[in-house]
Amino acid sequence: MSQFYKLHIKEVRRETPNTVSVAFTIPLEFQDFYKFTAGQYVTLKLTLDGEEIRRAYSICSSPNSGELRVAIKAVPKGKFSQFANKQLQAGHVLDVSVPEGKFIFEPKDKQRSIALFAAGSGITPILSIAKSILEDESNSTVLLVYGNKSVEETIFHQEIQDLQQKYMGRLIVEYAFTAKPSGDSYFGRIDKSIVNNVLFNKHNEITFDKFYVCGPEEMINTVSNTLKEHNVLEKDIKFELFTTSSSSEKEIETGNGHTKIKVICDGDEQEFEMSQKQTVLEASLKQGIDVPYSCQGGVCSSCICRVTDGKAEMKKNQILTDSEIEEGLILSCQAIPTTTSITVDFDDI
Length: 349
Prior knowledge:
Ubiquitin-like (UB roll), six-stranded parallel β-sheet, Rossmann fold, alpha/beta, about 20% helix, 19 strands, six-stranded antiparallel β-sheet, 3 domains, Elongation Factor Tu (Ef-tu), domain 3
C-alpha cells in the first residue's frame, strides 16, 4: 500500500531542453521511509485545476548518495510533466510516495559483468543501477547501451561522461542516436543489429551475467528477443516498461452485467456492485476508495492486489510473472472481473 508524505523540493535542475531532475529534502523523521533500492520509483501526487494527478517516476540517484532525485521528461499533452518542466521550483511541496517497484538491482560481494540498455527517459532507473554496481561491486564491469535522438537530448549525458572518467575501464558506454550521430555512436534506434554488434562483436570478450532493459515496449522486446536467440536465460533479463503499445492489449469477453465486489484496503472492507466493463481500479476509485495507483497504464506496479475469491483477467500484463498470477496477484488497473462475485485484497501483497 503506497504511503505519501509531503516533501519540499530541494532543487530543480535542467537536464535537457525538455527534461528536469527534481531532488527532495527528506526530513530526519522520514529518512527510514525513503531508503530505496536501485531501480525503484516514487509516485508524485498533486492537484492541478481541481484534478488529482499521480505519476510514477524512477529514482535516478544512488542509494548511497543520501539523495532522492527523479527525472521528469515533458511529453506532449502531459499535464504533470509539462507543469513540472515549466513551473516546479525549489521550495514547492509535493506528496511523494515511499519507494516501490520490482525492477531492482541488489549488489552482491562478487565480480561480474552487467549490461544495461536504456532509451530516452528509461535511463532514470538504469543510471541508479549503474551507480549502485560501480559503487558497491568494486570489481564488476558495467556496459551501458543508451539510445536518444541526439547528444543535446540525452538525459544525464555529462553525468555519464563523468562516471566514465571516475570508473575508467569499469564503465563502458555505447550511444545510439536517431537524429544526429556523434563521434563513434551508432546511428538509429537500438535494434537487433546494434545489440548483436555491441555484445557479440565489439565486446565479445566479456561474458555478461545479467541484463537490465528500460524504455519503450518495442525496444525491450527487441533486446530481450535478441538475447534469447543467443541462449540468454529469461531469468537473467530484467526489464521495466515506460510505455506500452495498444496492440499488446488482450480482448476480454465480458457480459453486460455486474459483479459484486469486495475490496479490502487499509484494513477496511467495502462491498458494492460494479459493471463488468470496468476495471477493478476504476470501480474502486469511483466508490471513493483510496486504493493505491499511479500510471493506470499497466507499466508500474503500484496498483497490485490479490484476488482471494472469484476471477479476473488482465487486458495487458508486462510486470507480473506466471507464478505471481497463479498466486492471485493482478494489476487492478488492467483487471476485469469475469465472475459474478470477486474479492480483492490490496493489503495482502
